[in-house]
């Protein structure tokens, strides 16, 4: 198999301005990694013809696989085709199948089609056209000199459709990817990335196949295992062997693999026990329960939530005694404890969780932003109240509080 130097380019000024995140590049790199293709460069260029052309020329000189997302729309600032034309020297022609689908969309929706929408059906005359059944602009594969170019829409759903249906099969054939690749993402919570790497240092340093790549995210850590073998069965066996070694060391923090989320895991654990859950939320404002009820089947577990943001509502609705609020304050262990006990009783749940604290930016009752108390009550056990000091902006603090509560519930349920 020849060496593949892959590169991903995102086109769009909105990416440079931070108006949207370049999640396309991240997803594409993940898919290429599964195939054993390494991405050596990520680039983002704005809607400027000269700079876009320069970026493309640089990619052409150093990479033999270039995947471009964005800039295939109908407006004047969609100039991916024009910039690439300076390299290929190919004519742009109308792809009739794409044009027919675009026209049909406007007829079906009783909307007039402006002339510039015809631009979306333009493709290079020698391109392999990738029909976009999720949108309008087709994708393209152009093989020029020693470089394979892939052009995809910037809309994530359209990009992923074309990658899965057309691009990944093309790459397997084009680069003769004969080895079978297996990959699994192990997910851990309650342990930091540096500690997990330290605990698994011997395994990580000695492992070559599969490779082990740590990946930290908000409040948890992932380990991506990627194995190559002559058959898919052998690749999966290599993954399973490495996974067994890893879990022998850090299994107490492992909650699942691949696309599972911690809220899905917690919901499943509650369902398996036949237990219900409720929440009393101040600074999180219902965010905890929203994370759970977003999962199909949550109605079998989630009894409800009481959002008690003000001291008055904590007193009147959650029945937190006025003397307690006056003596200890709303941001306190005592308030969190009373909230969790009362919401469990009021909503008749097996498990309850409470949140009170300071999301910021200003201090409250002498407590700095990021001070959070989380209460957890399981059945008739003693409530568990923990104090945290989260860093970050207001939304980060609220999200970190929710993630920490899910972590607490997970570790208590698996005992």
UniProtKB/TrEMBL annotation:
Coiled coil: none annotated. Residues 7-174 form the MoaB/Mog domain. InterPro entries: CinA, CinA-like_C, CinA_C, CinA_KH, Competence-induced_CinA, MoaB/Mog-like_dom_sf, MoaB/Mog_dom. Pfam families: CinA, CinA_KH, MoCF_biosynth. This is Putative competence-damage inducible protein. Belongs to the CinA family.
